[in-house]
Amino acid sequence: MVSFTECFGGLFSKRSTPKQIEPDSAIGGLLQSYPANPVQHPELNPELSKIASNLETIIAFVNPKSGGQKGRIVFERLKNYLNRENIFDLTKGGPKLGIEKHKNKNDLRIIACGGDGTVGWVLSVLDEMKLDNQPSVAILPLGTGNDLARTLGWGGGYNNESMEIFIKKVIFGKIVKLDRWSIETNLVYSDQNDIEVKRSSDAKDKLPLNVINNYFSIGADAKIALDFHSAREKNPELFTSQAFNKIEYAKNYSKDLLNRSCKDMLQDITVFECDGISYLDKLKTLNSHSIVFLNIPSYASGKKPWKNEDGFEPQSYSDGKIEIVSFQTADFMLLQIGVHGDHITQAKKIRIKTASPLPMQVDGEPCFLQPSEITIELKNQATMIAASEENALISACIQTTCSYLCCSTNPDTDDEIASETEDEDLFDVF
Predict the structure, then answer these.
(1) 147 within 8 A of 302, measured Cβ to Cβ
(2) CA distances from 20 to 34, 44, 158, 200 (A)
(3) How many CB atoms lie under 10 A from the CB of residue 286?
(4) I want to staple 339 with a disulfide (CB 3.0 to 4.6 A). Which of 136, 246, 271, 334 is the partner?
(5) What span, in angstroms and rounded, lies between the C-alpha atoms of 83 and 105?
(6) Can you tell me the distance from the alpha carbon of 271 to that of 398, in angstroms, rounded to the nearest whole number?
């Protein structure tokens, strides 16, 4: 039988030299000690120098605070592939200055390195700038949930993958459109049907965000997230490990489940209209504890609440429709094993009115909102880059090979990344 080593022509016999080889160097020069910047030194990285003109049109925004040490490491690794003036630290002025500097480049491609909040920040700045030629945005996921990155094929988190392969995905990825939804709130002080309107000194007058990229929810899941965030704000010194965070999240979930504290939470929704049709009776029939409005299929770190079935159009993030599902508190645990929510409808415009403060969250940012009238409708479409499945499969095969070839990597760098590779999925505690 031919051995695995023989199949690769004895390449693995070189695995002990040189001493410092990163997976990043595996394509552009198999045994280089460090990948040469193809823009500055094309003769040292001929593979990537062939597409150096493409690299000039890529800019990267890195949130160094995302993903523990991973944000800082990504920032340094990008320097081996992009010009230094094309890489920006988001903590130093945000994305606007960088976009302004490069906005006249044809086919400008932006890498948002961070969580879903970082991506939303970049997209909001692009909205404000109203550029004639909209740049396309790729994602290097460094956050917690990374649901938008999962949807577009970038994965659930950066775990020391080859930066060279990632850059090629950015260059050759598929350009897609992403629906973005405006969500407006107006405070309610009285109800036409003589329903008592209750207020709370603890509630907010506005939602934390006014655009939905991923999802919006009202009810139990927002309450669990809000309780967790409130506890973390009161005692931030306790929330320094992923294990503790997961335990605290599970404790909040279990408390709400056992006390059934969310069973009547949505009774104070007085209007629930989708495309002009009332679904209030359906909410009551389902005994909903939580309503989730999905722009993308991925929710809560990769769970799939919506299932395509007869009577509904296939779910899409670019069809101008949002999917609406209902849950009871116990259902969130069942999401782990593939259970879906109860379908309510798909809609282009939603109007909701509440008569008491309710917990809500927009793209993972929770708050307790005063009685309000809420309107959701399509705002615009963002231009995004999706990593194709074919590229992902090729990358996986090459990365497996690289892991053998590059066993003598820089120990300091690898140790730093290894300590941060676990994706902090708070819902996985169940």
Answers:
(1) yes
(2) 7, 16, 21, 60
(3) 19
(4) 334
(5) 14
(6) 54
The identity of residue 351, as a single letter, is R
CA dist 350 and 356 (Å) reads 19
Write out the two tokens for 172.
């050759």
Distances (CA, A) of 71 to 83, 165, 349: 18, 18, 37
- Can you tell me the distance from the alpha carbon of 302 to that of 245, in angstroms, rounded to the nearest whole number? 18
Half-sphere exposure of 354 (CA within 13 A, CB side): 23
Calculate mean pLDDT across residues 200-220: 95
Separation of alpha carbons 298 and 319, rounded Å? 16
For residue 364, what are its two tokens? 């993972």
Taking 70 as the threshold, does the pLDDT of residue 399 lie above it? no
How far, in Å, CA of 163 to CA of 249, rounded?
33
Identity (one letter) of the amino acid at 260? Answer: R
Q: Could you report the per-residue pLDDT of 290-311, keeping only the tens digit for each?
A: 999 999 999 988 889 998 888 8
| E strand spans, 42-104 | 58-62, 87-89
> Is the entire prediction scored with pTM above 0.90?
no
Residue 98: strand, helix, or coil: helix
Q: What is the DSSP string of 255-316?
A: HHHHHTTTTTGGGGEEEEEETTEE-HHHHHHHT-SEEEEESSS-BTTTB------TTSPPP-
Dihedrals φ, ψ of 123, to 5°? Answer: -65, -35
Q: What is the CA radius of gyration of the chain?
A: 24
Q: What is the pLDDT of residues 312-358, one digit of tens each?
A: 999 999 999 999 999 886 776 777 777 788 999 999 999 999 999 99
- Give me 229's structure tokens: 């965030």
* Residue 60 and residue 53 in contact, taking contact as beta carbons nearer than 8 Å: no
Helix (H, G, I), strand (E, B) or coil at 359: strand
CB proximity list for 405: less than 8 A, separation 6 or greater: 11, 12, 14, 15, 21, 26, 30, 31
Q: Is the dihedral of CA 261, 184, 304, 160 positive or negative?
A: negative
Measured CA to CA in angstroms, residue 326 lies from 36, 225, 244, 286, 293 at distances of 52, 17, 29, 7, 9
